[in-house]
Design a protein that fits this description.
516 residues, alpha/beta, Rossmann fold, 17 helices, disordered N terminus
Length: 516
C-alpha cells in the first residue's frame, strides 16, 4: 500500500467556485427539540474549519450529519458543488468523508488491526487476508507515529491509546474531508504535535478538516476559519487568526464573559485531610509517591498522560490496588478501603472518563446524581429508597448547576458533554465530603461551562473541602490551584508552592531531570 497516511486524491481539486463540503439550511429535529435550525456551513479544500459553541449548540449533531451517522430533517448537503444524500457512514466514506468522534466506536474484544479494518477487511480466495491487514495496519501506525502493535487487544489499551486507534481508522482509505471531534483530549503533548503535523500535510494536499475543540491554543495554532453555533443556529464565521477569545466567547454565549478563572481568595488552609506516604502500585504506574492536602486547599496534580497523577488518586480511593505505602483520611488509615467505604468516610473521586467510569449513560440524571448517597436522607429513609426526596433533591441540584434542559428523568446519554459533566459534578453535593478529587473536570466542555465548573470548585474549597485537581490543561494548574505536585513516570517529581507556579517551572519537571 503506497503512502497509507495521505490518501487525498491528486488532481481532483474542486473548482474554486465550489466549496469542498457545504450545508444549506440544514435542520435536525427530535421530539420536542430542534438540535439544528437552518444551519449554513461550508468547508474549503485545504483548510481547517473550526466548529465552536457551547455544549448543546449543535456541533456534534452537525458533524454526525456530515459523517453520514445521522440524517437531517431538512436542508441540503453538497459535495464539490453537487447535492448528495448520506444515508450512512459507509455512504460518506465513499465520498472520502471520515470522522473521528469524541466517543469511541471500537470493539474492545478485537485487536487494533481488526478494529482498523472492521467492515473493510481485505480478502484473498474468499478468506480474510490477515497478512495484508497486518502489513497495512503497521504502515498506517508507523506513518502516524503511534506506538501501538496491530495485534494488541483494544481493551488492554489506555484511553489515550484507544484515541490513537480511532484516529488511525480515519486514515485507512482515501480522504477528502476529515472530521475531528476533540481529538487531543487524551493525547500527550508529543502526540498532539504529531497529529498537528499530519493535519498540516493533509491540508497541503487539499483535504478539508472540520475540527471541534474548546482549546483556544489549538484554534490559534491550526485553525483557518471558525463557525460559531448557538442553540442550534448559525451565528457567524470569522477568521481564526484575527478573532480574540473575548470575541469568540461573546459570539458563543451572546454575552461578554470576563476572566474565565475566578479569584481564589481561599484564606488559610486547615488541618491535613489526606496524607499519602510512599505509595506504590503493583504495576508501578505509581512509585513511592507521597503527598498531602489540607482542608480548604485546591492542590493540583500535573504531568503528561500516564505520568501517574490519576493512578495515585485512583489507588487512594480504592479504585486500584496498592502494593505498599499508606493512605490516611483525617488521621484514620484508609489504605485498601473500597470506594464505597471511602465515600461514606467523606472521600469522593470523580473520574476523567465520564462515559465509561463516571456515569450510567442509559440511566436518568436523577439516578446518576443520587448514586453515591442512596444510604442517607433525603434519598432513603434508612430502609427503603425515598423517591420523593430523591426527586426534590436532584431537581434542586439541577437548577443550581443550570442543567439544560432541566429534565432529571431524561437519560444522561441524551445530554451534551457539558451537561453530562454537570450531572456527575452534582454528585459531590449530595452528601458532605471532606475530600473531592476532580480528574480532568473540563475535558470536552465549552468555555462558559468551564467557567462555571471553576467557580463550583472554588466555592467548595471556600466551604472547607479539600480539593485535588488532576489536569492536563496547564492553565488550570497555574490559575486554579494553591500548590501543585508534578509527576513523571509514576513519581512525584516536584512540589511547587503558589509563588513557584509558573509555566516554566511546571514544564521543567514534566520530563526526566539530568543528574547534577
Amino acid at each position: 500500500m503506497s503512502d497509507p497516511l495521505l490518501h487525498a486524491r491528486e488532481g481532483t481539486q474542486p473548482p474554486a467556485a465550489f466549496p469542498l463540503l457545504q450545508t444549506k439550511a440544514v435542520t435536525k429535529e427530535y421530539p420536542g427539540v430542534k438540535a439544528l435550525d437552518g444551519v449554513d456551513f461550508d468547508l474549503r479544500p485545504g483548510e481547517v474549519h473550526v466548529l465552536f459553541g457551547e455544549n448543546g449548540a449543535g456541533k456534534s449533531t452537525l458533524i454526525s450529519i456530515l459523517a453520514g451517522a445521522n440524517q437531517p430533517s431538512g436542508g441540503q448537503i453538497l459535495f464539490r458543488g453537487e447535492p448528495v444524500t448520506l444515508h450512512s457512514v459507509h455512504d460518506a466514506r465513499a465520498y472520502g468523508i471520515s470522522a473521528v468522534f469524541q466517543e469511541f466506536s471500537l470493539i474492545p474484544q478485537m485487536t487494533v488491526e481488526e478494529n482498523l479494518f472492521l467492515g473493510a477487511e481485505h480478502t484473498r480466495g474468499g478468506f480474510i487476508d490477515r497478512a495484508r491487514i497486518r502489513r497495512e495496519a503497521l504502515e498506517i501506525l508507523d506513518e502516524l507515529g503511534f506506538d501501538l502493535r496491530p495485534e494488541q487487544r483494544v481493551d488492554h489499551l489506555t484511553r489515550a491509546e484507544q484515541q490513537m486507534v480511532e484516529i488511525a481508522k480515519a486514515f485507512r482509505s482515501d480522504l477528502s474531508v476529515l472530521i475531528l471531534d476533540e481529538p487531543t483530549a487524551s493525547l500527550t503533548n508529543h502526540e498532539t504535535d504529531h497529529l498537528f503535523d499530519l493535519i498540516g500535510q493533509l491540508t497541503q494536499r487539499g483535504v478539508g478538516i472540520v475540527y471541534i475543540t474548546h482549546r483556544m491554543a489549538e484554534i490559534r495554532r491550526i485553525g483557518d476559519r471558525i463557525t460559531v453555533l448557538r442553540d442550534g443556529r448559525y451565528i457567524d464565521t470569522v477568521d481564526a487568526k484575527a478573532s480574540s477569545e473575548d470575541d469568540l466567547v461573546r459570539l458563543m454565549t451572546g454575552r461578554v464573559v470576563g476572566s474565565i478563572f475566578p479569584a481564589l481568595d481561599l484564606g488559610e488552609a486547615g488541618d491535613p485531610v489526606i496524607e499519602v506516604r510512599s505509595l506504590t502500585t503493583p504495576d508501578e504506574t505509581v512509585i513511592d509517591a507521597s503527598m498531602q492536602v489540607r482542608a480548604g486547599e485546591i492542590v493540583g496534580m500535573a504531568g503528561l498522560v500516564g505520568s501517574g497523577k490519576s493512578e495515585l488518586m485512583q489507588a487512594c480511593f480504592g479504585a486500584g490496588p496498592i502494593a505498599s505505602g499508606s493512605v490516611a483520611l483525617k488521621g484514620r488509615d484508609i489504605t485498601g478501603n473500597s470506594p464505597r467505604r471511602n465515600i461514606r468516610a467523606g472521600f469522593l473521586y470523580l473520574p476523567a472518563d465520564r462515559r465509561n467510569e463516571g456515569l450510567m449513560m442509559m440511566r436518568p440524571v436523577r439516578e446518576n446524581v443520587a448514586l453515591a448517597s442512596l444510604d442517607i436522607k433525603p434519598f432513603s429513609n434508612g430502609f427503603l429508597l425515598d423517591r420523593g426526596g430523591e426527586v426534590r433533591a436532584v431537581t434542586g441540584l439541577a437548577e443550581r448547576l443550570n442543567l439544560a434542559p432541566p429534565r432529571i428523568e431524561r437519560a444522561v446519554d441524551h445530554f451534551s458533554g457539558g451537561n453530562q459533566q454537570k450531572a456527575m459534578l452534582a454528585r459531590s453535593l449530595t452528601r458532605s465530603y471532606d475530600l473531592i478529587v476532580f480528574d480532568e473536570p473540563t475535558v470536552g466542555v465549552d468555555v462558559g461551562t468551564r467557567a462555571s465548573i471553576y467557580e463550583f470548585i472554588v466555592e467548595l474549597a471556600k466551604s472547607g473541602t479539600a480539593i485535588v485537581l488532576i489536569s492536563s490543561d496547564l492553565p488550570e494548574i497555574l490559575h486554579l490551584t494553591t500548590r501543585a505536585y508534578v509527576f513523571y513516570r509514576g513519581r512525584v517529581q516536584a512540589e511547587l508552592q503558589a509563588d513557584q507556579l509558573t509555566e516554566e517551572n511546571v514544564l521543567a519537571h514534566f520530563f526526566e531531570r539530568e543528574a547534577a
